[in-house]
Design a protein that fits this description.
single chain; alpha/beta; Rossmann fold; seven-stranded parallel β-sheet; two-stranded parallel ribbon; 9 strands; 50% helix; 19% strand; binds NADP nicotinamide-adenine-dinucleotide phosphate
Amino acid sequence: MRIRDKKIKAIIIGASSGIGCELAKILARNGYEVGLVARRIDLLLSLQKEIKGKTYLKQIDISNPSKAIPEIESLILEMGNIDLVVLNAGVGFINSELDWKKDKETIDVNVSGFCSIANVFMKNFLLKGKGHLVGISSIAALRGSGVYSASKAFVSNYLEGLRHKAVKEKKQIIVTDIKPGFVDTDMAKGKVFWMTPAKKCAELIYKVIQKKKYHAYITSRWRLIAWLLKCMPRFIYDRLF
Ligand SMILES: NC(=O)c1ccc[n+]([C@@H]2O[C@H](COP(=O)([O-])OP(=O)(O)OC[C@H]3O[C@@H](n4cnc5c(N)ncnc54)[C@H](OP(=O)(O)O)[C@@H]3O)[C@@H](O)[C@H]2O)c1
């Protein structure tokens, strides 16, 4: 049972815009103290002004794990006991020309950055014996379509491994894999159908967090697309996409 005045504490990696920014506001409105992490400090500062409750700021570039890991560790120390982390930071490019710079940035942020920061929190939760780790993957994780989809397949697969570890070690650690469809943020420019507003997406993610679910498509209608993608034969997939 919680001590009555104990604050619930969350860190959002990638809180400066889009889904992460909206989720930070929702968590704060619901009594969380929130640690806000991203590179664009100006956006974090204006988010901090908008949020009424207590927040912590840290300008961190997760694509450089050797610098990012100690910075995240010091944020955890500063905030104290962390109940929830949302690993939301990610980049995605249209890269039909297979430009290595774009692919490398995607791998640096969505794979190396994600994995290194997930490990910091997982070790922290394993030590305490509890915690909730949420990773933002994508519907794109389900079929091959360039480095972005491959990076999100890594995210979902890695989260499953962390969940397995928590179960094996009999810890009260929840690991949640969120797979949004198209969400109306800077990242999704050009996408046209079933676009979910970032605020709505964040509200749905918050519900998933409250229910401590292991997995969710956002919005739930994307479950249908997921099912179609998973059972679509290769020759149809190759023609359609
Ligand atoms: N929009 C969609 O349709 C969609 C669909 C499925 C999944 N997703 C996933 O949802 C997540 C959030 O994306 P969004 O749509 O909300 O786009 P967004 O507005 O571009 O947000 C991306 C967030 O990630 C942060 N970030 C990027 N690179 C970073 C780095 N090197 N270090 C630290 N933070 C970094 C950004 O902050 P800074 O730039 O300030 O560092 C920003 O806060 C991503 O993981 C994305 O892959 C999005």
